[in-house]
Amino acid sequence: MWAQNILLAVIGLSAGVIVASGLFSFVIELGVVSDFADRTHTGEHILLYEDSVALGGILANIFWVFHISIPGGNILAAVFGILGGIFVGCWAMALAEMLNVFPIFIRRMKIIKSVPYLILGIAVGKTVGALLFFANHWGQ
């Protein structure tokens, strides 16, 4: 029994570390953090910014998993909401800037005629995935 629980804990922690690493790599790759440093002319503090993003993700997960309440109530929630909204907005804009690469890629690869099928495939995949998720969720 103990061996099984330890094995499950190791697998769960390993999977969590892999997913978190991928997410933080994506945030860094999009250039959100470096954009903040560039626009505020504080590039010498880039490592502090990156550590702050990672620490924020780690602490939020700890608070979520262990149901830790944070003193400060609605005021702290409002501050967190504003700062989180700013960060997500900047993340979305960085992703939108990166998406400008797709039209060039499509023209160079000469797959212009295939684009409608690619879009249809993505839409069908998202629909089937959502249906499976909600069917499983409602079945419980």
Short overview:
InterPro entries: SpoVAB. Keywords: Membrane, Transmembrane, Transmembrane helix. With 140 residues, this protein is mainly α.
Key descriptive features of the protein:
84% helix, single chain, 6 helices, mainly alpha, Stage V sporulation protein AB, 140 residues, membrane
Secondary structure elements and their pairing?
Layout: H1 2-30, H2 32-39, H3 46-65, H4 73-98, H5 101-109, H6 115-139
How would you portray this structure in words?
The protein has 140 residues and is an all-alpha fold. The protein folds into 2 domains: 82 residues; 41 residues.
Mean pLDDT equals 81
Q: Please give the alpha-carbon distance between the first and last residues.
A: 26 Å
The tally of structural domains comes to 2
SS-derived structural category: mainly alpha
Question: How many separate helices?
Answer: 6
* Secondary-structure element pattern, one letter each: HHHHHH
Low-confidence parts: none
Query: Biggest sheet: strands, sense, closure?
Result: none
Q: Helical proportion?
A: over 70%
Into which percentage range does the β-strand content fall?
Answer: under 5%
